[in-house]
Write a structure and sequence with these properties.
This protein has 9 helices and 10 strands. By secondary structure, the protein is α/β, with parallel strands linked by helices. The two termini are 22 Å apart.
C-alpha cells in the first residue's frame, strides 16, 4: 500500500479526530498536522485533542499511527544567535512539541533546521547543533526529521553537506533523520530528473535509513531559484512524471509521502492529487 497523504488541519471540538476525517475524505493512507497554530505558542492540552477517538477511526481504516507526521511550528529557530530569547524559546518549545508527540503516539516530527539571520552559515549550523543537544533525550521515542530547505534568505539545511554536518555533530543523533521536500530540493538546485543520483549522494553522506518523510510538492520556480513556492502536482517546473518516480521509488517504499500543495480557489486538491499517484503503476525499469 502506498503511504501517501497531505497536510490536514486540526481544529474545532473534534481536533485530531477531525484531522483523521479530513485525511480519509482524501482517500489518504497517512497525514501530517500541527499540534497547534504554527505561528504561535498557543496549545490545547493533549487531553482535549480527541486522540483516542482519532486512533480508533485510524485503526478502522488501516492508517498506522507510526506513519503519521507532525510538523513543528515555524516559530522554532534553533539557528538564531542574534536574539537569545528567540533561541531559548525554540529550545523550550521544541522540547514541548516532542513531549506532545510522545503523548499522542507520534514518532516523526518534521523541523525546519533554522535561519542564521545574517550571522553566517557556520555560526547558525553550530547553534542548531547546540540546540538539538539541549533538546534530545536518551529515552525519547520521537525522531526529528530535519527538512531539506530551498535556501531562501539565511535558511540552513539547503544541501546534504549542511544536514550531514548537523547530524554528525549532534550527540544523540540516532534521534535525527531527514524530510526530503521535492520543491525545496528543486529550488535549492538539485536536479530531480537525476533522482537516483540524488539518493545515492544522500546515502553516501547521511544514509537512506534516515529518510523519515517525503514532502511531495511541485515548484513555481525554475531549479536553483531558492524561493520555496509550492505548486500543484504537474503544474510546476518539476512535473508529474518526475514526482511520480519519486513517490513510487522502491528505496522510499516505506516512507510516508505528504502533499503540501496550494489550494485551488479554496478547494483542497489532495484527493485528486493522491488519486493521480495511486492510479500509476511504477515500472522498475524507469530511471
Amino acid at each position: 500500500m502506498l503511504k501517501i497523504g497531505s497536510h490536514v488541519s486540526m481544529s474545532g471540538k473534534e481536533m485530531m479526530l477531525s484531522s483523521v476525517k479530513e485525511a480519509l475524505s482524501y482517500d489518504a493512507t497517512t497525514f501530517m498536522f500541527y499540534t497547534g497554530a504554527p505561528q504561535n505558542t498557543a496549545r490545547k492540552p493533549v487531553e482535549q485533542l480527541c486522540v483516542d477517538e482519532a486512533k480508533q477511526l485510524m485503526k478502522e481504516h488501516g492508517i498506522n499511527i507510526d506513519d503519521v507526521v507532525v510538523h513543528a511550528p515555524y516559530i522554532i529557530n534553533l539557528a538564531n544567535t542574534i536574539k537569545p530569547e528567540t533561541y531559548e524559546l525554540a529550545v523550550r518549545f521544541l522540547k514541548q512539541e516532542i513531549e506532545r508527540c510522545e503523548a499522542i503516539g507520534i514518532s516523526r516530527l518534521v523541523l525546519h533546521p533554522g535561519s542564521h539571520v545574517k550571522a553566517g552559515d557556520q555560526v547558525g549550523l553550530d547553534q542548531i547543533i547546540k540546540g538539538l543537544n539541549e533538546v534530545l533525550r536518551p529515552d525519547q521515542k520521537v525522531k526529528i526529521a530535519l527538512e531539506t530547505m530551498a535556501g531562501k534568505g539565511s535558511e540552513l539545511g539547503r544541501d546534504f553537506d549542511q544536514l550531514q554536518y548537523i547530524i554528525e555533530h549532534v550527540e544523540l543523533n540516532e534521534y535525527l533523520g531527514v524530510c526530503l521536500d521535492t520543491c525545496h530540493l528543486h529550488d535549492a538546485g538539485y536536479d530531480l530528473e537525476q533522482f537516483d543520483d540524488i539518493l545515492n549522494e544522500f546515502d553516501e553522506k547521511i544514509g537512506l535509513e534516515r529518510v523519515l518523510v517525503v514532502h511531495v510538492n511541485d515548484s513555481k520556480n525554475e531549479r536553483g531559484a531558492h524561493k520555496d513556492r509550492h505548486e500543484n502536482i504537474g503544474y510546476g517546473y518539476i512535473g508529474f512524471e518526475i514526482l511520480n518516480k519519486v513517490v513510487h521509488h522502491p528505496k522510499l517504499k516505506d516512507v510516508p509521502k505528504i502533499l503540501e500543495t496550494p489550494y485551488i480557489q479554496e478547494h483542497a486538491p489532495y484527493k485528486e492529487e493522491i488519486k493521480m499517484f495511486v492510479d500509476q503503476t511504477f515500472n522498475n525499469g524507469l530511471k
